[in-house]
Design a protein that fits this description.
It is a single chain. This protein has 206 residues and is mostly helical. The chain folds into two domains: 67 residues, Helix Hairpins, CATH 1.10.287.990; 105 residues, Iron/manganese superoxide dismutase, C-terminal domain (minor pseudopilin epsh fold), CATH 3.55.40. The protein is built from eight helices and three strands; from the N terminus they run H-H-H-H-H-E-E-E-H-H-H. The protein has a three-stranded antiparallel beta sheet. A hairpin with a 5-residue loop joins strand 1 and strand 2. Helix 4 packs across helix 5. Bound molecules: manganese (III) ion.
Length: 206
């Protein structure tokens, strides 16, 4: 849905991802951080009616076409808005396990095994210097890729479709894990919603 963008519902309770992600972190992350990205994106677009009919993803895919006076705001807050929309969806209580079907095959073909893929994405996310994200994405040629981005940059800005993202900003883990980003990333795998990631993969490949 285009402007004005709305903070989506989480789809589960704040404490639903415990013990891996604690309720207070979820409350602040969704109710404060994601809400701020949403409000700031709306504020940036307020004076640009021609952009108000566009989906946030479309703005990010063509970030260099966004007027210069709001480009940085759309990059940061539009990125934050879209990245977190995906983040809540790709997590679920009782998640984890392994992908099925076409995605399982794609991961095996690309990374050798699911374990090798997990290791690659974990290292990439942990190694992102400062705030950012680790991603599994589909590139323009339909190949699965693992990458990280700084700040709220989205793979959409590189012509890639994000399938799975792990938020490695300190606001995502500091209350429970303090400086132990590797422990957070290891725990996060237990809440991944592979059904959603698999469906996104199949849609993105069409
Ligand atoms: Mn975040």
């Amino acid at each position: 849905m285009p402007y004005p963008f709305k903070l989506p519902e989480l789809g589960y309770a704040h404490n639903a991802l415990e013990p891996h992600i604690d309720a207070t972190t979820m409350e602040i992350h969704h109710g404060k951080h994601h809400a701020a990205y949403t409000n700031n994106l709306n504020a940036a677009l307020e004076k640009h009616p021609p952009l108000q009919g566009k989906e946030a993803e479309e703005l990010l895919r063509n970030i260099n076409g966004v007027p210069e006076d709001i480009r940085t705001a759309v990059r940061n807050h539009g990125g934050g808005y879209v990245n977190h929309n995906l983040f809540w969806q790709i997590m679920t209580p009782g998640g984890g396990k392994e992908p099925q079907g076409a995605l399982a095959q794609g991961i095996k073909d690309t990374f050798g095994s699911f374990a090798s893929f997990k290791d690659t994405l974990s290292k990439t996310a942990i190694g992102q210097f400062g705030s950012g994200w680790g991603w599994l994405a589909l590139d323009g040629s339909g190949k699965l890729v693992v990458l990280s981005t700084a700040n709220q940059d989205s793979p959409l800005m590189n012509g890639q479709t994000p399938l799975l993202g792990v938020d490695v900003w300190e606001h995502a883990y500091y209350l429970k894990y303090q400086n132990r980003r590797p422990d957070y990333v290891a725990a996060w795998w237990n809440v991944v919603n592979w059904d959603v990631v698999g469906r996104t993969y199949e849609t993105a490949r069409k």
